[in-house]
Amino acid sequence: MPLTPSASIALGTKAPPFYLPNPQGHRIGLHDFPEAKAVLVAFISNCLPHVRMIREAFAILARDYEPQGLQIIAIDAIDADDSGPRPEEAPGRIVEETDVFRCAFPYLIDADRSVAKVYGVSCPPDLFLYDGDRRLFHRGRFDDARPNDGNVPTGRDLRAALDRLLAGGSAPQNQTPGIGGNIKWRPGNEPRCALSA
Fold first, then answer.
1. Cα 66 to Cα 126: distance, rounded to the nearest angstrom
2. pLDDT of 154-183, one tens digit each?
3. Pair 157, 143: CB distance under 8 Å
4. Which Pfam families does this UniProt record tie to the protein (predicted)?
5. Whole-number Å distance between alpha carbons of 99 and 102
6. What single DSSP character describes residue 108?
7. For 160-195, b where at least 16 C-beta lie within 10 A, e where not — what string?
8. CA distance to 28, 128, 148, per residue, from 153 (Å)
9. How far, CA to CA in Å, does 88 sit from each of 94, 95, 106, 163?
10. Coil vs helix vs strand at 167
11. CB 139 within 8 A of CB 8
12. How many CB atoms within 10 Å of residue 84?
């Protein structure tokens, strides 16, 4: 699978609004969490090695920071091809994932990738950390661990950004882009960043 770096989006960019269904069909959106001090919009996928590698560390990070005011919204940007969605992306498997890792945050389904397109998603795990005004604070990697490199994922880069944000600091100007699996967009549905890659 080819690796793709996350697209560069200017810090301070306002978070695009959205409403998406969870596996039970309940629609949840960015504006459902007005009191959150920080919102992490995380585009993930159950079938990608880079996502599967960090999922335990991601769940631990969620449990560490949610009491401090972080709201995570995970989004699975599936887009069924002619053969249909992968079994790992079925709503039932999404529920299983949240149960296994004791995740309290919503895990939503972007079936036509319309939200992923607006956000310029290129390589799940694609992470967008927003401050209390819902302006982009961090658009970098989770950490430097990679599949089969022997490093244990910790979320070091994202944790450092969260610590700065929750302490009232400014966004780190030097951010290392994330690396993940390439999204295969349907012809005509590619975001600009995918067309220029």
1. 19
2. 999 999 999 999 999 999 888 888 776 666
3. yes
4. AhpC-TSA
5. 5
6. E
7. ebbeebbeeeebbeebebbbbbebebeeeebbebbe
8. 29, 18, 11
9. 8, 11, 17, 33
10. coil
11. yes
12. 9
Whole-number Å distance between alpha carbons of 31 and 137:
18
**Residue written as token pair 């349907």:** 186
Q: What is the pLDDT of residues 13-55, one digit of tens each?
A: 999 999 999 988 999 999 999 999 999 999 988 777 777 788 8
Going by pLDDT thresholds of 50, 70 and 90, the confidence category of residue 106 is very high
| Residue 140: pLDDT over 60 | yes
Rounded to an integer, the average pLDDT of 113-137 is 92
Is pLDDT of 79 > 70?
Answer: no
* Residue 180 near residue 116, CB atoms below 8 Å: no
CA distance 160 to 137: 12
Cα–Cα distance measured from residue 161 to residue 4, given in angstroms and rounded to the nearest whole number = 22
Which pair of tokens denotes residue 170?
A: 């400014």
Is residue 143 a contact partner of residue 23, using CB atoms and an 8 Å limit?
no
Domains detected in the chain: 3-196 (3.40.30.10)
